[in-house]
Design brief:
- By secondary structure, the protein is mainly α.
- The protein has a single domain, classed as Winged helix-like DNA-binding domain superfamily/Winged helix DNA-binding domain (Arc Repressor Mutant, subunit A), CATH 1.10.10.10.
- It is about 40% helix and about 10% strand.
- It is built from four helices and four strands; from the N terminus they run H-E-E-E-H-H-H-E.
- The strands form two sheets. Strands 1-4 form a two-stranded antiparallel sheet. Strands 2-3 form a two-stranded antiparallel ribbon.
- Helix 2 packs across helix 4.
- The longest helix has 13 residues.
- The protein is globular.
């Protein structure tokens, strides 16, 4: 049950200037602008201990500034339960 609830938890990325949601692009999921890299993936990497530099090694199309700003936004906006 806990996993089902956590799977429904997500950050509201609608006001993050580094993230976009485009219909037909990664299923409309929020991604770093100009990429197909889900914003949640950037946060998950940090939660698993990856530094911004290590994340950039995995996703060279992301600038360190973008990684840091997406992470900061994600941390400053508490996840909200989606219906």
């Amino acid at each position: 049950m806990k996993d089902a609830v956590e799977a429904k938890m997500t950050v509201d990325w609608s006001e993050c200037d580094q993230v976009e949601s485009v219909a037909g692009k990664v299923g409309g999921r929020p991604v770093a602008k100009g990429t197909r890299i889900p914003a949640e993936t950037i946060l998950t990497g940090e939660e698993l201990g990856a530094t911004a530099e290590e994340t950039q090694e995995s996703f060279p199309s992301l600038s360190l500034d973008t990684i840091r700003r997406v992470r900061a936004y994600g941390h400053s906006h508490q996840p909200q339960l989606q219906p």
